[in-house]
User: What shape does this take?
Amino acid sequence: KQEVTQIPAALSVPEGENLVLNCSFTDSAIYNLQWFRQDPGKGLTSLLLIQSSQREQTSGRLNASLDKSSGRSTLYIAASQPGDSATYLCAVRSPPDTGKLIFGQGTTLQVKP
Amino acid sequence: ETGVTQTPRHLVMGMTNKKSLKCEQHLGHNAMYWYKQSAKKPLELMFVYSLEERVENNSVPSRFSPECPNSSHLFLHLHTLQPEDSALYLCASSPGTGGTNTQYFGPGTRLTVL
Assistant: This one.
């Protein structure tokens, strides 16, 4: 049974700092891995999707990497800003592929001005 | 604006009530999903519909009854709920259910069961 873990559960950093969020999964047989952002009381916004054949994806100040063999992904945020404060969720797609995403518990990030 | 809307945004109901959550997507997608987000637990998939056919039922109790009348609308009918069913219920849609499809989420309905 696929399980997804995110560490740390919470993180507080000063503005401008570069930071890394971690995600691990127990079964390396995945189709893809996705990083989402969730603001308080809101739905999820997709940030980056990495297919199982890819090693990384970049969007602006965000870079996500995937090491499928070790069951790990990282989300790197460069030059953090207060507007980056949110909960970041990692999710994987595993067989059978019925569209099911398996989520980690999330990392709540606070960027202080 | 994500193109996926949910109503109501907040709902308080007693254990004997019957209510329904509504989701509508304006993206022309063929797949729709219900997720449950409880406090201190990972977000959990409840149901998946593809072209109005249910393709996944993730061991959800029968007091939750989904309905997908067309590819743009998804309902979650609630009856005889328990306090532990209080959670944020999120709807999502995607072009299809295949692995390359990104899911787009609505803002959620915050449900409180008294």
